[in-house]
Write a structure and sequence with these properties.
Blueprint: H1 3-31, H2 44-59, H3 85-97, H4 102-127, H5 129-140, H6 143-147, H7 155-175, H8 178-192, H9 197-215, H10 217-220, H11 225-253, H12 256-267, H13 275-281, H14 283-310, H15 318-333, H16 335-340, H17 348-373, H18 382-396, H19 399-411, H20 427-437, E1 446-449, H21 450-453, H22 458-464, E2 468-471, H23 473-478, E3 485-489, H24 495-504, E4 507-510, E5 513-517, E6 526-533, H25 537-542, E7 549-554, H26 556-566, H27 581-594, H28 597-609, E8 617-618, E9 624-631, E10 637-643, E11 652-662, E12 676-677, E13 694-700, E14 707-716, E15 751-756
Helix pairs in contact: 1-4, 1-5, 2-3, 2-4, 2-22, 4-5, 4-7, 4-17, 5-17, 5-18, 7-8, 8-9, 8-11, 9-11, 9-15, 14-15, 14-17, 15-17, 17-18, 20-22, 26-27, 27-28
């Protein structure tokens, strides 16, 4: 072996090590939480795909149906907004592996893990092994790729298919071997059946390669005409046949109008809103998904790619440009969709990776040209090795934000900051619904309170294993209903609805969640609770990345408290000494209700000794905040303890908001400028509060990256039924103090609560 061969082998080996390490890291990252339960947010997509797979298998249909049905679905139920390839792929997995939300996750994970090696192959074929390694590394550090690498939506299969089609064609163009033509055509077929934007990529590539190879062969160089034309025709036929097949079937089933309407809705505003303003509004999402470094590299790379294709005659670099065109049209043209879905720009990720790979190739070419100009050699291959190190560091500079984005996505069910709006990840709701579903008859539809059904309900439908029907709570609780079962959330039932449910039905609660079976005779309420513990290392990695391990048990303490407020009997006091802070709180209330002043004072003193009283404050209606407790763990919570002086005049909540004071260390992403809402309504309506009782408000702190400061204030809720609406007939009365929430005593509009780094 010559010195040149040894140098080449050393460079190849170093590049392969980087690519293998990048792929291994990415596999670990996207497999995190593989077996986790599905709640709400964007993660509910996973449940949707699992339901579709079950419907395809159960009803022996090819079309996707997103909801459980009790009888064979009709074409008007078919989901026609996207091609069906990924649905069939997941159904195949389900046929082999059975039921589980980990099954569609696994489909996304396997496709994602294949992307870095293919990017290595693409970069190596275009520019050499060093650039290939940089391409692989650049992809696996990107926040959006890490955060949504296990989401089996349409973006992951698009990225996979783009890479497969590109890698297969570049290998095919080396020696025109038919097996590589088949690989590329498999990618083309995958693109046509992954999402409509795939047609844009294929069209751009076919036009670009035809123009270069057939129209300007003297400029771009000649190719072997017959195999190239065979590939070109087959790629065009596969794309056209897939597209026309969908259109013909949608027309036949009467669903074509639905597709056109949905795409029109997603594009609404794209022609009227200035692009600069649209991007400004999405700026934090863009930065937190890609980092400003990746965005800048991608912008600079676009004209350079174009110049390299047209001037340097590097025709195969049309592929990164086709990826860019596809991603831009999707992200800009379908405005409404991109305004809602933070993961939509994921197809920009392979473009960024190839851009950084191209820049590494330019660096090597420039350095080698300079050495040649000076009549110097590089026998040890220092130029490519140093380039590998330097550009590897550039890629790794994104990794801190990539890790932060991965954690952030897990904590928020893929919602990130949700533009400041309140987020419910609803994993505890899914666990509650699994428990409730085991107590329901099969083949039934469940009436779900509108407040729950509006929160990405398919994760809830999956947990129940049956269809759900969204209902207005007050209507279900006061009138006839077809559905036997009802599930709701006490936090979103006002005082009249809570009392009506307790008086008319046998209410069962699990945490804040309500379960009613209309066929069971009215009886005093029964309360159950979740016992929670932190997961061990294996549980945390595979099943509980952002949730505690929960088990269900009867809760006599919560049973007493709810019955007391709903004036139900019998209501015996809980037996035994309180063992938790929650039980101590309720023990205090038991003592107050019994008139035992001494016991109440002892329990109150014990509770106050366990919390931080530095934030204690009074409010204008006599309510007092006794203190707070911040509960660390995989699902951090802020507990706020209030001492009531009188029932509140309205359905108030204690709103907790936050602002970001500084970004995290090493972050490239500017701090989020949104004021974020965290507060949720009290489990017991404040209009039912008793004088001298202590109540707790639990706030999920799914914290944002950076130093976050929290403050709070009383505000009105958005309850489904206004307190001014009569539930049981008669004239409605507006309660005293309507619209005037309790104010902080001592000045200031907000109570400063805590700061977390």
């Amino acid at each position: 072996m010559t010195d040149v061969d040894r140098t080449s082998a050393r460079i190849e080996r170093a590049s392969q090590i980087v690519a293998i390490a990048a792929t291994a890291w990415f596999a670990l990252a996207v497999t995190w939480g593989l077996f986790a339960r599905i709640g709400g947010g964007h993660d509910a997509q996973i449940a949707t795909r699992a339901i579709i797979a079950e419907n395809i298998r159960q009803w022996h249909i090819l079309a996707p149906v997103k909801d459980y049905v009790l009888k064979p679905p009709t074409p008007d139920m078919y989901y026609v907004h996207h091609p069906w390839g990924m649905f069939w792929f997941i159904t195949l997995f389900s046929e082999v592996l059975g039921r589980g939300t980990w099954v569609p996750r696994l489909a996304g994970v396997l496709l994602s893990i294949a992307i870095p090696p293919m990017l290595y192959g693409i970069g190596r074929l275009l520019w050499g092994p060093v650039s290939g390694a940089i391409c692989a590394l650049a992809y696996v550090v990107l926040p959006i790729a890490l955060a949504f690498g296990n989401l089996p939506g349409f973006e992951v299969p698009i990225n996979f298919s783009v890479c497969l089609a590109t890698w297969g064609y570049l290998k095919f163009a080396q020696h025109w071997q038919r097996r590589w033509m088949l690989v590329s055509l498999a990618g083309i077929l995958g693109l046509a059946n992954s999402d409509w934007q795939g047609v844009v990529f294929t069209g751009a590539v076919l036009v670009g390669l035809a123009g270069g190879n057939l129209w300007f062969p003297r400029w771009f160089g000649r190719v072997r005409l017959r195999p190239f034309v065979e590939w070109w025709i087959l790629a065009g036929l596969l794309t056209a046949a897939s597209l026309l097949g969908y259109v013909a079937y949608f027309q036949h089933s009467g669903a074509l109008e639905n597709l056109i309407h949905s795409e029109t809705q997603r594009a609404r505003g794209a022609d009227t809103a200035p692009l600069a303003e649209v991007l400004r509004i999405r700026s934090y999402w863009i930065d937190v998904s890609f980092t400003p470094l990746a965005v800048t590299v991608g912008k600079i790379a676009a004209p350079i790619f174009l110049a390299r294709v047209l001037v340097l005659r590097r025709l195969h670099e049309i592929f990164p440009l086709a990826i860019l065109l596809m991603a831009v049209l999707e992200y800009v043209k379908l405005k409404n969709g991109a305004d809602v879905h933070i993961y939509w720009p994921l197809p920009f990720a392979p473009y960024w990776a190839l851009s950084l790979g191209m820049f590494s190739a330019v660096a090597i070419e420039t350095a080698q040209w300079e050495l040649a100009r000076r009549n110097r050699e590089d026998p040890r291959g220092l130029v490519p090795l140093v380039t590998l190190a330097l550009f590897g560091l550039i890629a790794l500079r994104v990794l801190p934000d990539g890790i932060t984005g991965l954690r952030y996505a897990k904590a928020t069910a893929g919602r990130f900051n949700e533009k400041g709006r309140r987020i419910f990840d609803d994993v505890d709701l899914s666990e509650a619904l699994e428990w409730m579903g085991d107590r329901m008859e099969p083949n039934t539809t469940v009436a779900m309170a509108k407040d729950l059904a509006s929160r990405e309900y398919r994760g809830q439908e999956w947990a129940l294993r049956r269809p759900v029907e969204s209902v207005v709570s007050s209507q279900f609780l006061t009138g006839p209903a077809e559905e036997r079962y009802f599930v709701g959330d006490l936090r979103f039932l006002n005082s009249d609805e809570q009392r009506r449910a307790a008086s008319a039905f046998h209410v069962v609660t699990l945490g804040p969640y309500v379960f009613i079976d209309r066929r069971v005779a009215s009886a005093p309420l029964e309360a159950y609770a979740f016992d929670e513990r932190e997961p061990n290392a294996l549980e945390w990695y595979f099943t509980y990345p952002s949730e505690p391990v929960r088990t269900v048990r009867p809760d006599p303490w919560a049973t007493w408290e709810l019955r007391e407020h709903y004036e139900q009997s019998p209501n015996p006091a809980p037996q035994g000494a309180p063992a938790t802070l929650e039980q101590i709180r309720i023990a205090h209330n038991v003592a107050v209700a019994a008139g035992d002043v001494g016991a109440a004072e002892r329990w109150r003193a014990q509770l106050q000794g366990a919390i931080d009283t530095s934030v204690a404050a009074g409010f204008s209606d006599g309510t007092r905040l006794l203190g707070k407790r911040y509960v660390h763990g995989v699902d951090p919570q802020l507990e706020l303890y209030f001492l009531a002086d009188t029932p509140l005049a309205n359905e108030y909540l204690f709103e907790v908001i936050s602002n970001i004071e500084a970004p995290p260390p090493l972050s490239l992403v500017p701090p989020d400028d949104k004021i974020k809402k965290y507060g949720s309504p009290f489990v017991l309506s404040p209009r039912l509060w008793r004088k001298g009782f202590i109540y707790v408000d639990r706030v999920d702190v799914r914290r944002r990256p950076g130093r976050e400061h929290f403050a709070g204030y009383f505000d009105t809720t958005t309850s489904s039924t206004s307190p001014a609406v009569a539930i049981n007939g008669g004239a409605a009365a507006t309660p005293a103090g309507w619209g005037r929430a309790p104010k902080l005593v001592g000045g200031g509009e907000q109570l400063q609560l805590m700061t977390i780094q």
